[in-house]
Structures are given as C-alpha cells and as structure tokens.
Amino acid sequence: MSKTVKLALGAAVVAVVYVGSTWYVGGRVKGEVHKQVAVVQDFLATHSSMAMFDQKRSFNITHYERGLFSSTVQYEVELADAETDFTFKLEDKIYHGPLPIAAGHFAPALAVAEGQLVRTVQTQAWFDAAQNQRPITTKTVFGFGGTVKGQAQLAAVNYTDPEAETTLTTETVAVGYDYQNKTGEITVDVTAPKLSVMNPEQFKLELSQLRIHVNANENSAQAHYDSVLNVDTLHLNSTETGVLDLKGLEAKANYAMQGELMNVAAAYALQQIVVEGTDYGRLDFDVKAKNLHQDLLNQMALVAESEQPEDEAKLRVLIGEFLGYEPELEHAKLTWTNQSGNSAIATRMKAAPALVQHFKEGTALQGELSQVYEIVTLDIALSRPMLQQVVAGNGLMASMFDMLFDSAVEAGQEVGLVTYDGTEVRLQFAFDAKQDTLLLNNKPITEDELLQLFLALQMGGLL
Predict the structure, then answer these.
(1) This prediction's pTM
(2) How does DSSP assign 350-395, residue by residue?
(3) Who contacts 438 (Cβ-Cβ below 8 Å, separation ≥6)?
(4) Nearest to residue 243, comparing CAs of 195, 284, 279?
(5) Which tens digit of pLDDT belongs to each residue from 64-109?
(6) Contact present, 285 and 333 (Cβ < 8 Å)
(7) Which 8-state DSSP code applies to residue 119?
(8) Where are the domains of the chain?
(9) Is the Cβ–Cβ distance between 56 and 305 less than 8 Å?
C-alpha cells in the first residue's frame, strides 16, 4: 500500500479520533478524560478497521494543564506497521463557561474547545500540502445539559508522494457533529466537494461531492447505527482499465444491537455505469443479515491478517464460535438494469449445526447438504434483451451472443437446470433441512438426482 493511501487513511483516523477527543475533554474531571482516552485506545487495539497497523495503535494524553479560565490538553496518536510509523500530536484549548467570550462565543455554555493538529517533523509534509494552513481545526460547544455541537475542517491539500509519484488533491472538507446527552444520539455529517488521486503515467481518479451522514446511539437499550454515503460522480482514467465513469453512488447501512448480537441491513446503488463511453446501466445490491457477533467478527478480521501458522487453528475456532450464535444471511440480491430489462441473483443461507461442530471440534462432515446448510436458496434470473444490449457494442460477441445463449439455455433445459419463457432464463434452488425440502425450479429433487445433474453438466462442458 502506497504512503499516499496510508496518509489518507491516517488523516481520516486522526479526524475521527480528534473529533471524538473533543468530546472526551468536555468532562469536568481529569480522571474522566483519561478514562475516555482508554476507550479510544481499546478501539484502536481491537477494531478490524485498524488491523493493517499491526505493530502499534495508540492514543494517549501527553499533557494536561488545568487553568482558571481555560485548560490545555495535548494528545498523541501513533499508527505503525512494518513499513510506516505515523505519529500525530493534537491540541485542544478549552475555554470555560458559563460565558466563554474568549472563544468568540457569547451565549451561555459549559465550555468551548478550539483544537488543531500540532506541527511536528512527521506532520510537516501535511502542513506543506495544506499551504501552511492548519490541516485540522475544530470548534466545539459543550452545553450545560451535556449536549455537544461543533464543526471541524480539514484544509485543502495538494500532496505528492515522491516514491509512488502519486498526487493527492482535495478541497476543504467540512465535518459537523452533534451529541444529545438525554437521548444518547450522535450525528456526524461530512462533505468533501472534490478529491483526486493521480499518477501521470498510470491513472487519475476523481470524486466529486462526497457526502456522509451518520446517526448512532450506543445506549445498550437502543443501540443502533445508520449511515448514508453519496458520491455524485467518480471518474477513473487508467492505463489498465481505460475510462470508467460512475454516477449517483449511494451506500446505506444500518444495524441494531440485541445484546452481543447485531442485525444488519445495507443497500448499495450505482445509478449509471459508463465504460469507454458505453452506458452499461445501473447496479443495485441489497443485503440483510441477523445474529452477527460483532466482537467475534473483529477478532476474525484481525486473526485473518496474521501469517502465523498457529493462528489458522485459532481462526477455525473463532469461526465455530461465530456460527454458534446462528447467524443468518436473510437476503442478498444483486440487480443489473438497463433500458432493455434487468437481471438478478438472490440468495439466503444459514449454517447447519454440523458445520459449527466441524469448526469448533474438527469433526468430519458427511457428503450431505444438511451437514453444511440448514437453509440455502438461490434464485437467478437473466433477461435476454438486457444481456443483448450489454454486448451490443462488442461486434464479435454481439454476433455470437444468440448462438451461445441459445446453446447454453437448451442444454440447461434438457437436464432440468433452468426454465426459459423466451425472454428470461431462470434457475431457482431451495433447501430447508428442518422442513426436509429440496426444490429445483419449484419441483422436488433428491440429493442423488442433484448430484447426477451436476455430473451431466460437467461431462457436457457446462461446468
């Protein structure tokens, strides 16, 4: 991974941690500040998003000076892996209420904090890239009722990584954040008008109007997380992939906690995909899952990154523990749409108890579906007109499409694998171990018959 990408990731981490740290210092007791810093340290040490920094991930207070009318707090964030070691110093100036006039705030408030990134040897390049502007600045108002509201800015930068010969350019990024003490609701909004990454000899990537909205509540009784990410346009010009334009990117995600387990729903959309000037339509992906153990997911992500032989066995045990909570992929569907129609693939699955024991205890699996799945479904629908439009711009493929499509459909129909109505080819498969049902295109089938079908397809060269 290039230093430019790591610097960008580090900047994002610093921004998030720094906004959070402003809330931490809003406490009235120094001990509470240290307590909350420990929470951030635990996040850095255990969360899967930080796994790439496998040598050190730390967040500490290096200086705390309590004054009569104001206080000064300094922090240090260190992120290190085998190749890089980033250290950032941050500083908050906290103006005490009830009227923090020195901060330019004339309404009653418990405190107003103004923060910034500290210039050091390691962050000098960031200051240079920001044309000697402060790369990160924040202003946060703490209300008497425990509310926190503020804004942060990441200065526009123009940074070139000399090793990768890659340039990162951004316009000013604005961050707004709000915390309501009575409800425990946290809201964060991020707006980045423009971002580009360019290597003159290899590629140019441009994003315009990136917007992120997050609403979360960590209260145990009503813990939830909702987020929306939008990008108006993404333009990629690469020597390897050519010109790619994506328009109307949207990603929505929400989860709700039930004790240790998490229920998740997400929806992703690309309103328009244009490759080398050809419009390939729209993509949508929806997914819904339940009973996901978040802590075990994080542990599995961390162990999966390890190259130690003993961690392979540890990962198997973690997978077994994770499956023991009966996670279920309730729904996952990918839909591709253009002017001529749409094609889709949908699935649902849940692991069988035998598979849980296989990972936990190393027991052998028998050659039956019920040993792996308790529930599994697959529904594939392919629109002939839609696919014809996809290949229409490719002369050779367009001329051969009808022959290849008809040949494949005919072979699939002969063995009962698919149905076809002249427009749409369909494959539907459903297995439910508890209900003792196995269906292919809504017709009962045995596991032996299913095996024979796949053997026939292999012999016919279709698999």
Answers:
(1) 0.81
(2) EE-HHHHHHHHH-PPPPSSGGGTEEEEEEEEEEEHHHHHHHHTT-H
(3) 369, 430, 431, 444, 445, 446, 447, 450
(4) 279
(5) 887 777 788 888 888 777 667 778 888 988 887 777 776 777 787 7
(6) yes
(7) P
(8) 3-197, 260-463
(9) no
